[in-house]
Write a structure and sequence with these properties.
With 506 residues, this protein is of the alpha/beta class. It contains 17 helices and 20 strands. The strands form five sheets. It has an eleven-stranded mixed sheet with strand order 3-4-8-10-9-11-12-15-16-19-20, with helices on both faces. Strands 1-2-5 form a three-stranded mixed sheet. Strands 6-7 form a two-stranded parallel sheet. Helix 13 packs across helix 14 and helix 14 packs across helix 17. It is globular.
Length: 506
């Protein structure tokens, strides 16, 4: 065979492979995915070098290119974690991977909208493998999910690390991972048919808080075009750097490491991962991992940045579930802890927030103080800057448990957003998830359709039911995914939220 003919055949074969829907070539090499029906998936794609050894507590570094077609048929390992959110499957410090779900008809250089999911788990747990993007790909969206470092591997400060960073950002290594993944999307998503200029980030709980921080971080500017924050605790402050450094120094000292020079930092990096991942006393413990206001990556709190109009100027959906207090069962079990500090206002609060039921009142006050009122605050700051905000409330409870459930648990909307409702009953310990009914599916279809419409156009519009109006302070309109269906409610909980806002101001 002549050299010209051989090269011609090689070129033709390469072109055929690139045209195959289960094969793509990105900046680091070729990938071989899996086709299932009308969706093709590529899983476990590294977006950064393994953050191990000398790269522990460093910003993500470039992944080394590979030769041949890399198998992308299975999820990568979950990031190391401990506590109540332990991930299924293997865990490893080498965990910085993304997964891509696309329509099987995608073409390189296409213009499909892109959605990037950031999981929750209190910054100590979670994994991208819980969230298949099949339902979004069915609807013409390229969905990406990502892993980010957790616990003390992802959210940890120490004076020695601050010195090493030399003002470039420290502590928020999990956030750095998210930014690196978004840069990967910017560079590579067109190969999967996605439009790098039409990227929506969305997340829940710690993932939603991450969305909020990405909105205010200078280093993430220009990497996304829209944002969705599901239960994002918008007024919760990050930990000041000095306080985070003190916690890091105390942890180091407890493990026989004192000082802040290079030798001590090296000793910290040499600690076994299971030592670092020992859980704190709980999500509300003083040493619980959380974003750190380091002055560079995170210049200030989300609340302050929004007040000053420093957030990214992008359309924003944000909202809450009706029983966010499910995160802390003691709120409902011991309502006096929440109610007694109200003093003479206690009886009125029980009537207004709980219709006379102290447990319901305490749960509502916690939920509205932690998430619902902060949502209103951030939405108001958004529109002051000329940005579009859309606020939701998720209160739909399946009929089978409606008589006993206090409301929708924290995270309860996710299965509806991803269209992952189960056709059979699921038992999880003492908690039972009933089999999905047609009414359940209608709510799922609606919220999913709004999310898809927002990703495609920047407006949720009326894709899932009634027109979802842009938030305006004079109407306080919120769309409620409720037991009565999808309903627009003006002046939503205005009296309760005004009281909470007034209490905050004191």
């Amino acid at each position: 065979m002549g050299l010209g003919l051989g090269l011609g055949l090689m070129t033709a074969n390469a072109a055929m492979a690139q045209d195959a829907p289960d094969t793509v070539t990105i900046t680091d090499g070729a990938l071989k995915g899996v086709i299932a029906g009308d969706v093709v998936s590529f899983k476990g794609i590294p977006f950064a070098a393994p953050p191990v050894g000398p790269l522990r507590w460093k910003p993500p570094q470039p992944e080394a290119p590979w030769t041949g077609a890399r198998d992308a048929s299975t999820f990568g390992a979950s990031c190391m974690q401990a506590g109540p959110f332990g991930a299924r499957g293997p865990q490893n410090e080498d965990c910085l991977t993304v997964n891509v779900f696309a329509p099987v008809t995608h073409k390189a250089g296409g213009k499909l909208p892109v959605m990037v999911w950031i999981y929750g788990g209190g910054f100590v747990g979670g994994t991208s493998s819980y969230y298949p993007g099949t339902s979004f790909a069915h609807d013409g969206v390229v969905m990406v999910s990502l892993n980010y470092r957790l616990g003390r591997l992802g959210w940890f400060a120490h004076p020695g690390l601050t010195k090493e960073a030399a003002g470039s950002g420290t502590g928020d290594f999990g956030l750095m991972d998210q930014i690196a993944a978004l840069k990967w999307v910017k560079a590579n998503i067109s190969q999967f048919g996605g439009d790098p200029r039409n990227v929506t980030i969305f997340g829940e709980s710690a993932g939603a808080m991450s969305v909020n921080y990405l909105l205010i971080s200078p280093q993430s500017r220009g990497l996304f075009n829209k944002a969705i924050s599901e239960s994002g605790f918008g007024r919760t402050p990050g930990r000041p750097l000095a306080a985070a450094e003190k916690l890091g120094s105390d942890f180091a000292a407890a493990n026989g490491i004192a000082g802040d020079d290079a030798a001590q930092v090296a000793a910290l990096r040499a600690l076994p991962a299971d030592v670092l991942m020992k859980p704190s006393a709980g999500l509300d413990a003083p040493d619980a991992p959380t974003p750190i206001v380091d002055g560079a990556l995170v210049p200030e709190t989300v609340e302050k940045a929004f007040a000053e109009g420093k957030q990214a100027p992008v359309p924003f959906i944000l909202g809450a579930n009706s029983y966010e207090a499910s995160l802390f069962g003691k709120v409902r079990q011991h309502p006096e802890t929440t109610l007694d500090p109200l003093g003479p206002r206690k009886d009125g609060a029980v009537k207004l927030f709980g219709d006379g039921d102290p447990a319901a009142a305490a749960s509502a006050i916690w939920t509205e103080n932690a998430i619902v009122e902060p949502d209103r605050y951030l939405a108001r700051k958004e529109v002051q800057m000329g940005n579009r905000a859309y606020v939701y409330y998720f209160s739909y409870v399946p009929a089978a448990i409606r008589a006993t459930a206090p409301g929708v648990n924290h995270g309860g909307e996710i299965a509806y957003v991803f269209k992952m409702l189960s056709p059979v009953e699921i038992k999880r310990g003492t908690y039972t998830i009933p089999a999905a009914t047609p009414d359940d599916q209608k709510i799922s279809d609606a919220i999913h359709a709004y999310w898809v419409s927002f990703a495609k156009t920047g407006e949720p519009d009326s894709a899932g039911g009634p027109h979802w109006p842009v938030y305006k302070p004079d109407t306080d309109a919120v769309i409620d995914f409720s037991n009565d269906g999808v309903v627009v409610r003006d002046h939503f909980k205005q009296e309760q939220l005004d009281i909470i806002e007034a209490m905050r101001a004191k």
